[in-house]
Amino acid sequence: MGDPKKSIADLKIGEKGIVCCFKDEEMSLKLLEMGCLPGSMVELSNKAPLGDPICIKVSGYNLSLRLEEAATVMLR
C-alpha cells in the first residue's frame, strides 16, 4: 500500500507539499482564510527552537502555525 498522507506538521525544513484536504472542519475555515487552499504549494521554512510554532510559506507570504493546527492540513 502507499504511504499514509502527510500533514504540514510532518514536513522538515525546506520540504514542500501540496495542500490536499483538512482533518478539522472548524480549523479548515480559519486556514482557508489565511491562504491554505487545496492545491496550494506550502514549504516549511522555519521552526521555533522547541519545534512549536512553525513557519510555512504559502500563497506568497509566511504563515506561523502551531503544530496542532499544522497537523490538520493534509498534503499529497
Write the layout of secondary structure elements.
Elements: E1 6-7, E2 16-22, H1 25-33, E3 41-47, E4 54-58, E5 61-65, H2 67-70, E6 73-75
Antiparallel strand pairs: 1-6, 2-3, 2-6, 3-4, 4-5
Organism: Sporocytophaga myxococcoides
Pfam families: FeoA
GO molecular function, one term: transition metal ion binding
Summarize the structure.
It contains 2 helices and 6 strands; from the N terminus they run ββαβββαβ.
Please explain how this structure is put together:
GO terms for molecular function: transition metal ion binding. Residues 6-76 form the Ferrous iron transporter FeoA-like domain. This is Iron transporter. With 76 residues, the chain is α+β, with helices and mostly antiparallel strands. The chain has one domain (6-75): Ferrous iron transport protein A (FeoA) (SH3 type barrels). The chain is 17% helix and 38% strand. It is built from two helices and six strands; from the N terminus they run E-E-H-E-E-E-H-E. It has helices at residues 25-33, 67-70; strands at residues 6-7, 16-22, 41-47, 54-58, 61-65, 73-75.
